[in-house]
Amino acid sequence: MTLATGRTVTMTTKAGERPMTTETLGTQQLSSLLQEIIPAGQTAPASGQDARFEYDSPFGRVSIHVTQIEGQTAIVLTPAGAGGEAKPASAPPPRPAAKEPERAAAPTPSKTAAPAKAAPKPASAVTRPVPKHIDELFRRMVEERCSDLHVSSGSPPLFRKDGDIVTLGDDAPIPPAAMKEMLYAITPERYRKEFEETHDTDFSYEIPDLSRFRCNLFMDRVGIGGVFRTIPTKIPTAKDLGLSQAMLDLCHLNKGLVLITGPTGSGKSTTLAAMIDYINTNLNAHIITIEDPIEFVHPNRKCLVNQREIGNHTQGFKSALRAALREDPDIVLVGEMRDLETVAIAIETAETGHLVFGTLHTNTAPSTVDRLIDQFPADRQAQIRTMLSESLKGVISQMLLRRNGGGRVAVHEILMVNSAISNLIREGKTFQIYSIMQVGKGTGMVCLNDALLEAVKNGTVTAEEALTKAINKTELKGMLVRLGAKLDGAAAAAAQVS
Fold first, then answer.
1. How far is the C-alpha of 433 from the C-alpha of 426, rounded, in Å?
2. What is the pTM of this model?
3. Distant-in-sequence, close-in-space partners of 351: CB < 8 Å, separation ≥ 6
4. Which stretches within 6-118 are classed as H helix?
């Protein structure tokens, strides 16, 4: 790597030189950097002088050569022990070739130095270059069964695997300029313009025969970045996901509101796709989906499925939902109920004889009811409680846990709205919903802790994992103790915070 005043930082690899920054370095910046890395007791070289020393960086030991390039001070960094390291101090400093005045040359290897390919590689050395196209990262992501890819300017790519952010080998940091080129290559023109105006955008991208990806681009203090989530091309079936009969019964309703809830990344879209696929396979109906962006693609089977994407096919959730009322649907899927007006229209749509599926970012089924009502002004809440008591038919609250043996598994809390639940919603006594759920197990209701306990019983997850993800940890700890499950110290301590 070469840093020189009046130039951008450049990285020299086998493939040639690559700029690492878009801004040139100033004399003061280079001087400050030199003061930070020069060994204690050694003075910085005067203008025109050369110096060599080694520095223990967080990524391994590197050889530093302070030299001159076209009369300007330059710092050349190479992995210590690599074949291309700087020559002994008695040798004259390397100079860039005259025919390439605009390029900062790496130090010339000594004639006695071993060839680069034979040199021992430091454990921290980068072995995988910056990919030429982001598809290379997508393929690794799918092969390693990762759910998400995170890329940030100036950092190596990171992946989410089994819920954790991890690296997959020694990847080179991606410079801002290369990052922008890589991400713009897959971004449709409309979304490029949106990103340049707002510094955020969402879209979908597909590699045929591999997978679809939900894409988000953003800008941070370093430069452009992106997060990408895998959307399998094959829609998982209800059987694949182990959906209960109570969840499938909700698919047979002819009207009402059904909500799938859970934190970001809990698999709500996947569960909802499996339920829509079940309807598409078993019923004759017209389904309209409103998504941002379209994730799972549903072919027409027994149903007619029209999928509309925000930005491409409609302006927003509100306008698309209003338009759906004139499009003779039986079932409407609202990808995300983001604001008060969308929630209000969804409830009205459910009241007028349509089955509406939607998602919310809430952690439990009872809290979902409060969240819906609290979005409205105080003077409208009594009316909304009445409407919701009649239209809400079920809430499925979902979370993902690490599965024993690798991968992840979903557990579901299920609220089936019966006459007792309807009365509690209407009367504003939602705090009593949990008690009704505990005694309503025969009607398909499942409390979250019961679902977690069952996953521990059948060996799907560990007791520690279940306790970590529980909302009411104290209650689940007691249930696990009665089950005879052994908890480690960390899990038992975590249970003290309920």
1. 12
2. 0.70
3. 255, 387, 390, 391
4. 27-37
